[in-house]
Each structure stands twice: as structure tokens, then as C-alpha cells.
Amino acid sequence: MKAWWRNVAVLLVLLTIGQTGQIGQHVHAHEMGTSALLLHETKQGSGQLVFKRTLAADGKVPPIDFQFQPACELRDINTEWEDNLEVIQRGSFHCNAPLKQHNVLATGFTRLAPDLIVLATPLNTQRIHTVLTPKETSLGLGSHANTTAPLEYLSIGIEHIVFGWDHVLFVTGLYLLWKRRKQTVPQLVGQFTLFTVGHSLTLAMLVLGLIAVPTRAIEAWIALSVFWLAWELIRPAPASKAGWSHLLLIAAFGLLHGSGFALSMEERGFPEDALLFTLLLFNLGIEIGQLWIVTVLATAFALLEKAHYPTWTRLAQYALTLLVGGAALYWTVERIHGYV
């Protein structure tokens, strides 16, 4: 490599490391902050409330807020932090009429805080489970069932993969590893199929309540799976092509990432009256998002190769590898430290 290109490469490394620090500092499992409101009416017109907000990628508490219509009095509101990542407000509400005669109005939506999960149990009324968004900012707490439309879980699945940076970097690393080993398209499809089967299996089992997993341990192992891909990308290429052990490892990592998808949906949940259908749509959304990531990567590299820029192609591969490895190392240390 010529001296000029060497200097460019060094500069790119430094910039990538700097950006990795920024990503690691603000991004944990997902870019978007989660907000949830839980209402439980214990006697007519009054009960307990819990309002949770998780830090978004900008490191700030989502500005989402809510109010009752007609207005209700909130009392004894206590605020606490959990792991410096989630602010939780607990207290009670007191209304002049039964909860089912009120509406909940949500405000303060942003790109990093696009919705508010609402779980409400008014007296003598069906349990309400829905999501408020900028397009649907109010919710009636009446006797009719209020649930998120099943088709919305398709877009929710896409959001979870596209805005989940650890999952994005895993998919990116898997693609780069396939490219580095000069494997065939069927081999790429086969690897992603194994990953899909793995995360679909644990996602379904966790949502159906068949298994339970420790949240912090899973987050740490997901970070380690991304770090493993980075290691595979920088170590000397093996003499033989990827064998069964490589494929089994990808399937195992799929199981881990499926646990991450399920844990991130724990508060939002799935409607019990259409559980399998919404679970299928959510998983399909994940696959669409995954396919979109691979398509963007493949298109970008195809354009570079078609333009006969081999040096820029290599630099792009090196930069992405550094990004995958740097972010994964930060997440691994951070999550293991938080776990122990």
C-alpha cells in the first residue's frame, strides 16, 4: 500500500475508533427508548400506576408524557432509577369517575421515542394492552378491547432489527465473513437460515412462556457473539471452508439473539387473542429488516467493485470490521461488568 493510502487507512481507523466510542457510550441493546404506562384500578376511580422510560441512543430520558382526560389527581409519585438506564415513577391515581370513563393522552413523541406502551386493568372491564404513537395519541379506557392492530407488529419487528445496533452489527459481520471466505450465495442463504431458525425458536419459546432466561447474561452473550465475528474477520483465514462447527455456532448465536428480541418485547407484549399471528408477523418483520441490511451491504460493495475501486473496497471492509469489533468489545466489557 502506498504511503498516501496508508495515511488514509490510519485516519480511517482513528475515526472509526472514535465513532465506536460514541456508539458504545450511548447504544446498549437498541437505539430507541422504551416507554410504558401501567394502570391498575383497585377501587372505582383510583388505583396504582407505574410509568417507565428507558434511555434512548442519545443518552436522554424520552420526553414522552401522559395525562388523563378528564383530569385525575396523581399522588405519592416516587422516582427511581434502575441500572442508570431506566427511570421508573410509581404512585397512585384518583379520578372522580371510574377509570373506564377516562382517556389517556400521550405527548412528546420523538424519532428515538416513537411510542408509549399502555397496559391498563380497569375494574370489571377487559384488560387493555395497546401502543400509542404519533398517529394514535389517545386511548379510551372504556369497555371495548383496545389492542395494537396485528399488522403493526410487522413494522415493530423491522424496527427491532434495524434499530438494534448489536443485531445490525452481527448481521454485518456475518455478511463480511461470507465475503472474506469467498463463499457462494447458497452458503450465505444457508447461514442466515440457520440464524433465523435459531432466533425464531427462542423468540417463540420465550413469548409462549416455555423458557425463561437471565436478561443481563443474554445481553452479554449477544455482545460476545458480535465480538466472535470480529475475531473471525481479523484472524488468519482457516485452510478449509467453514464446517459444521461454524454452522452450529451461528445457529447457537441465533438462539441468543432470539432471546434478545423477546426480552426487548417483554413490556410491549403480544395480544393473547392473536398470539401466534402477531408473533409470526413480528418475526417476519425481523427477517425483512435483516434482508434490508444485507441488501444495502451487497449493493454498496457491488457498486465499489463495479467501479473498479479495490482499495476503497478493502478500506470499507476494514472500517466495518473495526466498527464491529470496537463496538462489540465495548458492549462485552460493559455488559459483563453490569452482570457481575
From TrEMBL:
Keywords: Membrane, Transmembrane, Transmembrane helix
Keyword Membrane set for record: yes
Transmembrane segments: 153-177, 189-212, 218-234, 246-263, 275-303, 315-333
InterPro entries per record: Put_HupE_UreJ (IPR032809)
Pfam families (alphabetical): HupE_UreJ_2 (PF13795)
Domain of life the protein comes from: Bacteria
Name by which UniProt lists this protein: HupE / UreJ protein
